[in-house]
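## Example pair
The file below holds two records. Each record gives the amino-acid sequence first, followed by its structure token line.
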Amino acid sequence: MVETTPKNRSTFFVDGFNLFHSVKEAEKQLPERQLKWLDVPRLCRSYLHLIGGNAELGGVHYFTAFADHLRDENPEKVQKHRAYVRALTASGVTAHIGHFRRKKVWSHELKRWVKAYEEKETDVAIACEVLTLALEDRLDVAVIVTRDSDFAPVHRCFISHFPGKRLLFAFPFARVSKELKRLCPASFTISKEAYAKHQLPESVRLPSGKLVTVPASWSVGG
């Protein structure tokens, strides 16, 4: 019987808006590049060597929400976001779509309450998915791509209940959390050069056979 080296199924859980704002910051430092058409699976795979233990990509889960409340004033923004998520899912990513909730906030400038929107439930959705896949023994290593220190309790819960597994954080460029780094020293930071290196093809073929194309303003010539 041939012995095989056990694999470390390493699954990434991506806080989409956290990553997006990091990409925008990277574009400021690499002004000649457009980086938003990011190939997230290839990006995650490129960091498996830092996880070690013969790590292999077990899957990529991408969490985001569509700003449908902007459809009237900025429809192009919503369309670009939807196109990108379609390209990711065609590339093997599992997308988890949340929602925005309207709320009122006090404007000191206007001296009155104004309408605002905030993304809801993403952190909880990520935590639930991480713990569910661990409970079902569908991963060996969970990697949460975020800088949000609200995930500290998730880390403590994970290592307490799954001592044979690991949970790491991958900090998007320019968005390191000192608290999460102290909690999990084995965590790592994604570089802006990695964003530039791992971009999707200009056109991605969907399961239907149709093509989804990078928005013009996101292309290198845009």
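Second record, same layout:
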Amino acid sequence: DTVVVDCPSSGHGLLMLETPFAAVRAAPVGPFARMASQIIEWLKTSVRIALVAIPEEMAVVEAIEFKDDLIERTELKPSLAFLNVPRSVTTVK
């Protein structure tokens, strides 16, 4: 099965993905740490992360920064990248 999740903007999406890693760093033992560790294992083994950006410099730079921050904070590596190119719009007069 495939589930596609459209995450919020890169900063908020990064915080969402980083949460279980931060939880384990903050409280490395106990039931909360066990649950966070299970989520981390699931993220590492069952989730494929794809980056999507529109073909504009700022959006592409933000996607690259997101990738670098994600790897640094979680060791999760995106496996796909897409450019979201809108179709041409033809105006009829």
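Notes on the second record: The helical segments are 10-26, 31-46, 57-74. The first strand starts at residue 50 and ends at 53.
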